[in-house]
Amino acid sequence: MSIVGLLTFSNFNGLKAQDAAAAPDPNATEQVDETAAPAVDEAVAEEATEEVAAEETTKSFHQVLKEKYIEGGAGWMTPVLLCLILGMALVIERILYLNMSTTNVKKLLDGIEDNVKNGNYDGAKELCRNTRGPVASIFYQGLDRINSGLDNVEKAVTSYGGVQMARLESNMTWIALFIALAPSFGFLGTVIGMVAAFDAIEAAGDISPTVVAGGMKVALLTTVFGLIVAIILQIFYNYLITKIESLVAQMEDGSIAFMDILVKHQK
Q1: Which of 28, 142, 169, 237 has the fewest CB within 10 Å, making it most exposed?
Q2: Range list of H helices, the chain
Q3: How far is residue 105's CA from residue 136's CA, in Å, rounded to a whole number?
């Protein structure tokens, strides 16, 4: 009996020890929860930071420009913007006009020579009338004076060539004006911003980044935008100048070839 009682007591103690090991410790749970709480807060904070960064990076170019325009001050950014709008309007007008002024001079000269060779000066004039561009207009003025002699034809071609050249260069001076005005307004905004910054320093009696930042920001933004506008307009201006020079050379070469045709098939 004593042996059976000893075995029963031993089994009872073993089961009790297993139950104690399996039961959760409330203190341990609290410690785990207290340890995990800061990690969760840090994860939430990191997610919020990533969302803010994503929103900042997804801003469109238009939104960034609008913000910088407002930060630079409408009073000084508006003149720079007007220079860009008016300058680009003139640039587009000149590009369209110069592209429409481009003529296949060789084809036109071949058609004139075929008509002049057969004595059909009216047909040559009609061909020039139906062909767009300054070269055709110059040839028409020369053919219109064919009865007055070749000297008068040459004078008409030279005089009307100068008129057409002036038309090609029309509005170019205004584009050059806006190229000069845009950075000038930017620099003026810079000076005014610097003056405002020094006034703020004088009023505060202390030099601090917070006091100086406002005026300096206006100064830098107006300068940057003024230079950007000037660079854009300057690129288009150089393109237009190159196009005009090409058309003028085409007019001069075509006029020489035109006079050679008239001399060769003199009426």
Answers
A1: 28
A2: 2-22, 26-57, 61-72, 74-100, 105-117, 121-129, 134-144, 150-168, 172-204, 209-264
A3: 8
Same-domain pairing of 48 and 76:
no
Q: Are residues 187 and 145 in the same domain?
A: yes
3-state DSSP of 17-63: HHHHHHCCCHHHHHHHHHHHHHHHHHHHHHHHHHHHHHHHHCCCHHH
User: CA–CA separation, 213 vs 215, rounded Å?
Assistant: 6
Lowest pLDDT segment from 38-47, 121-130, 136-145, 246-255: 38-47
Assign residue 73 a region (left: φ > 0; alpha: ψ between -120 and 50; beta: otherwise).
Answer: left
How would DSSP label each residue in 127-139?
HHHTS-SHHHHHH
Whether residue 80 is found in the same domain as residue 121: yes
Count of domains observed in the chain: 2
Q: Which two tokens stand for residue 220?
A: 């830098």
How far is residue 147's CA from residue 145's CA, in Å, rounded to a whole number?
A: 5
CB atoms inside a 10 Å sphere around CB 58: 8
Per the listing, tokens 């720079």 go with 80
Give the domain range for residue 21: 2-57
- Sign of the C-alpha dihedral, residues 226, 227, 232, 238? positive
Cα–Cα separations (whole angstroms), residue 105 to 28, 101, 111, 222, 239: 96, 11, 10, 47, 22
Residue that has been written with the tokens 């980044």 in this structure: 209
CA distances from 119 to 92, 212, 234, 262 (A): 42, 81, 49, 11
pLDDT digits (tens, 9 = 90+) for 45-94: 566 566 544 454 566 756 765 666 566 566 778 889 999 999 999 999 99
| 141 shares a domain with 19 | no
